[in-house]
Amino acid sequence: MRVIKPSWLSHKGEQKDFEVYSCHVSSDGKRLATAGGDGHVRVWSTESIYNAEDRSYTKPRQLCHMSHHLGTIHSVRFSPNSRYLASGADDKIICIYQLESGPPTIAPFGTNEPPPVENWKTARRLIGHDNDVQDLAWSHDGSILVSVGLDSKVVIWSGHTFEKLKVLSNHQSHVKGITFDPANKFFATASDDRSIKIFRFTSPAPTATQHDMVNNFQLETTISAPFKSSPLTTYFRRCSWSPDGNHIAAANAVNGPVSSVAIIERTRWDSEINLIGHEGPTEVCMFSPRLFHTKKPLENGAANGHSSGGALVTVIASAGQDKTLSVWNTNTSRPVVILQDLASKSISDLAWTPDGQTLFASSLDGGIVAVKFETGELGWVANLEETDKALSKYGASRKAMGIAEDVDGLQLENHSKEGERRGAESRMGALMGDFHPLPKDAPSATNGVKTGNATPNPASSTNGQAEAEPEKEKDSPAEEPADKTAQRVNELKSRVTITKDGKKRVAPMLISSSGTGQSSLPQSQLVGSNSSKTAQNDAPQTILDLSKPYDGLPEGGLASMLLGNKRKAITLDGDEDEEHLNKRPATGPRTIMRTTTEELEPATLEPPKHGVVPTPEFLRPAVLNPSIAISQVRLAVPKVRSHILRPLERGLLLEEGTLEEASKVPESVILEAKNPTAIRDPSRITATKRGTILWQDYLPRSIILVTGSKRFWAAACEDGSLYTWTPAGRRLINAMILESQPVILECRDWWLLCVTAVGMCHVWNIHTLSSPHPPVSLAPILEIAISSLQPHSAMPAPGVTSAHLNSNGHIVVTLTNGDGYCYSPNMYSWQRLSESWWAVGSQYWNSNDSSVSALQSTAVGAAPPKDGKHEEAAVSAGIIPFLERHTTSEFLLKGRAYTLQRLIKTLLSKDGFETFESSVSIAHLENRIAGALQLGSKDEFRLYLFMYAKRIGAEGLRGKVEELLNSLLGGVLREQKGEGGDEGKGWYSKEDDICGWDRKELLKGVVMILGKYRELQRLTVQYARILDLTLEDDIASDAMVVEA
User: In this structure, which long-range contacts are made by residues 489-497, counting pairs with CB atoms below 8 Å and at least 24 apart in sequence?
Assistant: First the structure.
């Protein structure tokens, strides 16, 4: 081990050396970047550092220096491809430098800096933080750059366009550290709120924007146990992820009263290992980027198929305020080396070279130290293939797919892909002529790969005639004698058929059939004609849960459906009068035939290669009436599944899952429905808690859907019948018979919703045994007036993605085109609450996320009461934001919106469309207000009303302002108005409140918002006098905090 500390390797000043806050080594190991308190980023040659003691070394030491910050630079990081260099400072700016190929600029006149050797130019200046930028990190594929700072924000930037993709505000205090998972699935941030937060992400595309990142970068977990009493005096909390992806090392942890480095295990996200030994708080820890062998590997790298280098270990370095650098590996309980008093002040940053053998350390005394280890001191560096292999179990090399963190799931995936590969090899072997079927007693795992002592002889060709020789296998059954085989081949070759016109013709013969009497294609691909089971392929088959409506005719058209297909199976012996024993049925798949010595015969089904076939997820499609094919609306019907399980946890109905997952919460009540294989056997439904059966019942038909709440349970059957039970299992109502099979079954509190296959929505109140309205059809919202429900038409109609109930029993439906609807039981009509028109034309789209973040956003599902209050305290809260978020995800994120936005921008430049954007924005707010009033959504109604008042006041729309004030005044001055006629509703109601709010309070809020617009003061002053509003009231009252 060599410790190198050149005197010239520092940020020199006139009085003293400036503090060095950060250092980093490029991916090629040739450059060291340092950042200091002088506001300079300096790039050094690592080769000159290694040769600091060599007086004959004359190459440049400092390659470049950049001074584009206005303050202290806290972090500097090279991108993975070393194309970019990022620096963050206390001027709240992030600078991105790019290495250009041109000659470098000359150093400014009057400076003592050496002339630059490399041409690093400032490519971007990123503005997104409100306080000091404390740390930076690039993802391992370079797709994103993440910065953290003292403003408690985590800002994510595109690594290609450097556009701000997302801001995460999950931390409650300064964020001082960031590290990335080498498998590119997570990143971790460390904060002074004494926690580390793990965020899950998917690498964005180079052209990704903020809209694309709505559902990316989600908080996975928060780890706070190792940091409960950690001091807040450290300048950094730089954490590091191990190169094999298994662990995170977190600085500034505590173990009792002792400072330590916490080692956090992946997936479990807990810390059972602590590195203890530092006398002061640690500020930085850094894993070596390479894995190490504990023993010296052999030259060829392998012996008998096993790694010869012993166990694989990781190496970690840690340092901090005790001015001590310690290096550990995972094979020993004590440090490998301890360097005490390496600096006179705190060590601020550590950086390993890519080969894992050299460590650089920077400190606040202005010094930069290189620690170069000899081969074998830390271990023997493993090949990069070992690192890739370790990361592959976390899906590191799998792009454009879901994240699989479970090792068992990845092993199953690899096993499946191995089956695909073997199947492809066997099919290729069959096409190339070198595939030979295995005997029946051969091992099943080969699947087309030659095993044992089989030595097949290739068929020889003489004058174009094929001659086959028998295969010689030790373990094969008794073979025919060679003379009999040759005789049979000669018979095949001399087989002559006579056509109808009397001509003789030699029948063609498959070459592969002469040797074995079997087809050379993989037998597992053939479908037996006398089997009722599905063919078993090596590749996994996709199992859908829904049966799509059938709208076509069989092959051959209407005549084939009515008369059947009368064509006979082809025979080769010329006997046309002989009836074939196995006729192909009129409908169903074609039988795959095989050429034998005598004739064509149906292929037999081979047994599955991997033992017992598991029970399928579903048993069969639901039995439907054929007349549904001509129904105006046809929805997909769930298939009959063998097992349906829904857990109810503290009154919340959870999604379907496995019994193991549902049993994790002991208080959960689990409703299970089990359908029989035989269609005539009864189905069983059971409710259990903690493994104890609460009740069970039997139904005569197969169960398709189940739902439930803390009030009741419900199940819908294949024949369109609907059953309900109390929580104790007592039947509540006689079976309700519907016109078609159920498609969606949902409940909320006492309300029950069922949508059938013909698009009819039924709603019942189980408490009052009544329905708020007759069954209503989904046809109007499926655009039946202008669209065809044929899925193959040029413009197919939208489909239903979800149907829910709110607290008042209103139906809320979302569609695949992004639209959201609510059914009004008073007006017997569907009302559109959200649509893509507002998304592209309104300035208020997505403006409600922060404003209503405190509102209950789970109103579309069952929500528990909060703070002991009844659910009605937040009726319909969050429905409109939910529908607008659904519109965003269905419409904007699919790319269709960008075309419309371009069209609208073009439209705005035309004559007559100057007020287009303003009009659409106001109409959007009016739509929100009407929807909140219809749903009875109290908090959103007030919020949208104040936003609307502010907008029309700013636009100076006197007519709408006066009408709004008059509508709010409706119940306040009813004695003065004295109007007769029918009792009004909503805006025209004569009651003192509207949508749960006192009209006077709402009117006060609107008047206070409009009061600042002078052109409207003639109106607003009159209403202020009616309400007895004075300036003193405005100042004294704290109840008039208006959100707008």
Answer: 489/514, 491/597, 492/597, 493/465, 495/572, 497/572, 497/573, 497/574
- In angstroms, the CA 201 to CA 166 distance is 12
**H or E, element range at 805:** strand 800-805
Answer whether 0.90 is exceeded by the pTM.
Answer: no
Residue 511: pLDDT band (50, 70, 90) is: very low
The CB density around residue 728, as the number of other CB atoms within 10 Å, is: 9
Q: Is the Cβ–Cβ distance between 224 and 270 less than 8 Å?
A: no
Query: What are the residues facing 136 on neighbouring strands?
Result: 147
Q: Which pLDDT belongs to residue 238?
A: 92
Map 398-430 to HEC letters.
Answer: CCCCCCCCCHHHHHHHHHHHHHHHHHHHHHHHH
Structure tokens belonging to residue 659: 């019994």
**Burial class of 590 by CB neighbour count within 10 A (0 to 12, 13 to 18, 19+):** exposed
Residue type, 148: V
| Of 784, 829, 794, 804, the residue nearest 633 (C-alpha) | 784
Find out whether 291 and 297 touch, Cβ atoms under 8 Å: no
Select from 829, 831, 779 the least CA-distant residue to 634: 779
DSSP code of residue 499: -
Asked whether 505 and 496 are in contact (CB, 8 A), the reply is yes
Average pLDDT of the chain is 75
Lowest average pLDDT, out of 131-135, 583-587, 822-826, 900-904, goes to: 583-587
Task: Return the higher-pLDDT residue of 538 and 1022.
Answer: 1022
- Residue 221's Cβ-side half-sphere holds a number of Cα atoms within 13 Å equal to 11
Distances, alpha carbon 996 to alpha carbons 921, 940, 964, 992, 1040, in Å: 26, 11, 18, 10, 17
Cα–Cα dist 1012/582, whole Å:
90
pLDDT at 722 over 90: yes
- For residue 891, the one-letter residue type is F
Positive or negative: CA dihedral 370, 374, 375, 379: negative
Query: CB under 8 Å to 560, separation ≥6 — which residues?
Result: 553, 554, 586
Both tokens assigned to 526: 């053939």
Highest mean pLDDT: which range of 228-232, 658-662, 915-919: 228-232
- pLDDT surpassing 70 at residue 960: yes
- 508 HSE (CA, 13 A, CB side): 2
Single-letter residue type at 364: L
Q: Compute CA distances 521 → 209, 604, 750, whole Å.
A: 49, 13, 60
| pLDDT at residue 270 tops 90 | no
Q: Which runs of consecutive H residues, i.e. helices, occur in 433-550?
A: 482-493, 511-516
Of 296 and 902, which is predicted with more confidence?
296
How many DSSP H helices and E strands does the chain contain?
Answer: 18, 62
Edge-to-edge order in the sheet of strand 144-149:
133-138, 144-149, 154-158, 164-168
**Residues 111, 132: contact at Cβ < 8 Å?**
no
Q: How far is residue 381's CA from residue 301's CA, in Å, rounded to a whole number? A: 12
